[in-house]
Amino acid sequence: MKNTILKAYAKLNLSLNILPERGERGFFKVKFLNTHISLFDSVRISKINHRSLQINEPTIDQEKNIAFRAAELMFETFNIPGGVSINILKNIPLRAGLGGGSSDAAAVINGLVKLYGLSLEKDQRLSLVKKIGMDVCYCITGGLCRIEGIGDVVQRLPFKLPVLNLLVATPREKKSSTAWAYSIIDKENIGINRKKLEDLIVGIKSQNIIKIASSIHNDFESPISRYYPIVQQIKTSMMKHGAMNAVLAGSGLSVFGIFENDINILKAKSSLEKDEISCFITHTIDD
Fold first, then answer.
1. Which residue, among 220, 262, 37, 1, has the nearest Cα to 116 in the 3D structure?
2. Which CATH number is 38's domain given?
3. Mean pLDDT across the stretch 118-128?
4. Lowest mean pLDDT among 8-12, 122-126, 266-270
């Protein structure tokens, strides 16, 4: 095999709870419920003869690219001969709370394992990717997962999420970084909505989309909305046009809304696009 192509699916936090306790290196502990959605980047990995790592993603400098760092880590760890060329066709918006970079990095690791026939079980992959980013831990696993620890404890849940029809809206504004998002959180309020996570799981088990929609939550939403009012504006517009609920995606600035029917989702999309907000219609997947 000389090349392989993988789909790097976008990540969605259906519940994002930051806990007051601190874990390793002073990081906040978390409780998330994550799933993948149908939006994806295409990652093509090809063998080349000379010792080189090449990545073609014009939106990010190679040295800053998390997928490049993932490839470097794999080559250093396993002394892979020759080199690779990696081409990433981006569809997931950058720095939008959808885990695009982490998904690409996970695809690179999984692709190199496949391309070179490496013996690397999932637990070994998780141990490896902790060095480059905690979101990559989820993306390596995929599916409907409960995330704990500092983002490094990933448990795939033994039941299925019903298909949720989503509108994702991404404004032009870009937040500084996820580290910045953690720096502005309301420490007195974090973790107080953990019951919503349990309610969400009950809704998923019973396949009750109304309960699922009412239970989605994000601890980042309130503090980030203070700095970026566009988040609340998007939420308000989605709710006005029939969303069952709308919540900040990850550390933002995308917002996703859950809709019952195509008519409402199209109305909301049309309204937001008039304000030059990028939108796409997608749905949850069980990969």
1. 1
2. 3.30.230.10
3. 84
4. 122-126
Using an 8 Å Cβ cutoff, are 39 and 9 in contact?
A: yes
The catalytically annotated residue of 11, 31, 235, 269 is: 11
Q: Do 101 and 219 fall within a single domain?
A: no
pLDDT in tens, 88-113: 999 999 889 999 999 999 999 999 99
Could you say which of 41, 104, 135, 199 is catalytic?
A: 135
Contacts of 179 (CB under 8 A, 6+ apart): none
What is the average pLDDT across 13-41? 89
Rounded Cα gap, residues 78 and 87, in angstroms: 21
pLDDT at 186: 84
Amino acid identity, position 280: F
Return the CATH number at 213.
3.30.70.890
| 194: Cβ contacts below 8 Å, ≥ 6 apart | 17, 19, 31
Is 11 marked active-site? Answer: yes
Per-position b or e across 189-221, b if 16+ CB within 10 A of its CB: ebbebeebbebbbebbeeeebeebbbbbbbbbb
